[in-house]
Specification:
This protein is of the alpha+beta class. It has two domains: 81 residues, no CATH class; 68 residues, SH3 Domains (SH3 type barrels, Roll). The strands form five sheets. The chain has a three-stranded antiparallel sheet, with no helix packed on it. Strands 9-10-11 form a three-stranded antiparallel sheet, with no helix packed on it. A two-stranded antiparallel sheet has the order 1-2. The protein has five helices and twelve strands. It is elongated and about 55 Å long.
Length: 172
C-alpha cells in the first residue's frame, strides 16, 4: 500500500482525517506533518498532485498541509488555484485554527487580515526586482507572514513582495 499524499511505498500508517472518520494511509513523513509537525521541504511537492485527488480525504489533508505552510510561496500559489467542493472545504477548515499567532496592523493601527487590500503610503524600492513600488499603489489579497507582525506579502507589478506594515494603509 502507498502513501495517499506522496505515493511512497515505505511503511504506511492509517490516519483518520477528523472530524469525519475517513481514513488515509500515510508514510511516516506525511503522518508527522498531519499531526502538526511540518516545515517547507522538497518532499511537499507531492501536494501539487494530492490537492487534485479524487479521494476527498486526501484532498482535505493536502489542503490542511498547504495551509500550514504559510511561509512557502509555492504553497500559497497552489492554494490560490485549488478547488474543493464546498462540503470538502468546510471539512478541511474544520480543524484549522483561524487565530493568527501575531496581530498585523497597518500604519494607522488598523488590524489587517489575510485577503485584505492595502495601499502603499511611501515609494518603496523593491530589492532584486529592479523597480520602485510607487506611493498609492494598491495591493490586493495580501497574505500575512505568520511569524512577523511587521511583514505582509502581496503582488506589485506581477511580483510577489514582502512589505513592511508601517508603509501600508488598509482600504475598504
Amino acid at each position: 500500500m502507498a502513501c495517499a499524499l506522496c505515493s511512497s511505498d515505505t511503511s504506511v500508517t492509517d490516519y483518520t482525517v477528523s472530524p469525519r472518520t475517513d481514513v488515509v494511509s500515510l508514510c511516516d513523513t506525511c503522518l508527522s506533518a498531519a499531526q502538526g509537525s511540518i516545515t517547507d521541504a522538497p518532499h511537499w511537492n507531492c501536494l501539487n498532485d494530492a490537492i487534485w485527488s479524487t479521494d476527498a480525504a486526501t484532498q482535505v489533508l493536502a489542503y490542511r498541509l498547504l495551509k500550514s505552510l504559510p511561509e512557502a510561496p509555492w504553497a500559497r500559489d497552489l492554494l490560490d488555484i485549488a478547488y474543493l467542493e464546498p462540503e470538502n472545504l468546510e471539512w478541511a477548515e474544520a480543524g484549522i485554527s483561524d487565530e493568527p499567532a501575531v496581530i498585523h496592523r497597518d500604519s494607522n493601527g488598523v488590524v489587517l487580515s489575510a485577503g485584505d487590500s492595502v495601499v502603499l503610503i511611501k515609494d518603496l524600492p523593491v530589492k532584486g526586482a529592479g523597480f520602485t513600488a510607487k506611493r498609492g499603489t494598491p495591493v490586493r489579497n495580501i497574505s500575512l507572514v505568520h511569524d512577523n507582525e511587521e511583514h505582509i506579502e502581496g503582488r506589485v507589478e506581477s511580483q510577489r513582495i514582502v512589505i513592511l506594515t508601517k508603509f501600508v494603509k488598509k482600504t475598504g
